[in-house]
Specification:
This is Oxidoreductase EphD. Its EC number is 1.-.-.-. InterPro entries: NAD(P)-bd_dom_sf, SDR_fam. GO terms for molecular function: oxidoreductase activity. 40% of the residues lie in helices and 13% in strands. It is α/β, with parallel strands linked by helices. It has one domain: NAD(P)-binding Rossmann-like Domain (Rossmann fold). Helix 2 links the parallel strand 2 and strand 3. Helix 3 packs parallel to helix 4.
Length: 303
């Protein structure tokens, strides 16, 4: 089996990419490699100061990198709408949207719009952003939308439409798994609708396996300790980002596919095409979650 690396990314000159959560971890590494191959990259970040610092770091590594820092808090629909409007004002087309930003294992809390924080940040904010940028994606000759999910979509995850806000017996591990399952349900449904409409865009998904990033800062104590002790056995952020980069750029990747590490349990290693759970492919759940998500966020997809 050949090993796919960042060296396999084709020339991206002339393309525009938007990467959410690009100030740290997987998002920053994704932005770095897209810029290295010539793309104009919008670093869509909640903290602009951290975004500027990340841009400076990338430019030091990639002289001449074409970067712009865009304020975006995916936990706020008002921020999502403002950012989308600014991005639309700068770009007639967007070739790549990487929905990467997220939180993990947070204590029970809500977004400013009243959504459970993990579902609101990881899923609903990105649904809204994708819808609001859809016309710019459809203006590109071959746009891709990449949802960054997690192997945690297999862990204690289900979509409970009677309690999407997780107000009953909140479990932060289950809530994270739900949000990552929602990422896949959305990506697969979006790709199916794009295909049905004969659109030039596709949607794919990726997961980084178990990577050494800041995302684990809210993990329960035993998990944080295990990450510290086993850090040398985890994917680095650079390797973890390769699954996203392959989904985003590999000419042989197809809509509706999922990429993740090829190692045992899809925990570590370089990216290959992998399979997600049966629940993620349930058409009825995909359609219902799509409708509920659009209703909650107040967006629609004009396909």
């Amino acid at each position: 089996m050949s090993t796919w690396t960042a060296r396999d990314i084709p020339d991206l000159s002339g393309l525009t990419a938007v990467v959410t959560g690009a100030n740290t971890g997987l998002g920053k590494e994704t932005a770095r490699e897209l810029a290295r191959r010539g793309a104009l990259v919008e670093l869509a970040v909640r903290d602009e100061a951290k975004g500027r610092a990340a841009a400076e770091e990338v430019r030091a590594d990639v002289p001449g990198a074409d970067l712009h820092v865009q304020r975006l808090d995916v936990a706020s629909l008002a921020s999502v709408r403002a950012a989308a409007e600014e991005l639309r004002g700068r770009h007639e087309r967007i070739d790549l949207l990487v929905n990467n930003a997220g939180v993990m294992y947070t204590p029970r809390s809500t977004t400013e719009d009243g959504f459970e924080l993990q579902l609101g940040t990881n899923h609903l904010g990105h649904v809204a952003l994708t819808a609001l940028l859809l016309d710019r994606l459809l203006a590109a000759p071959a746009a891709r939308v990449v949802a960054v999910s997690s192997v945690a979509h297999k862990i204690r995850s289900r979509i409970d439409f009677d309690d999407l806000a997780f107000e009953q017996d909140y479990d932060r591990v289950a809530a994270y798994g739900r949000s990552k399952l929602a990422n896949l349900l959305f990506a697969y449904r979006l790709d199916a609708l794009l295909r049905a409409a004969g659109a030039p865009a596709v949607a794919l998904a990726a997961h980084p396996g178990v990577s050494d990033t800041e995302l684990t800062r809210h993990s329960p104590g035993p998990l944080r300790l295990g990450a510290r002790l086993g850090g040398r056995f985890l994917n680095s952020a650079a390797v973890g980002a390769l699954a996203t980069l392959r989904a985003a750029t590999d000419p042989d990747a197809r809509g509706g596919e999922l990429y993740g590490p090829r190692g045992p349990g899809e925990a570590v290693g370089h990216p290959v095409r992998v399979l997600s759970t049966e629940a993620s492919h349930d058409g009825a759940t995909q359609r219902r979650l799509w409708d509920v998500s659009c209703e909650l966020t107040g967006v629609s997809f004009d396909l």
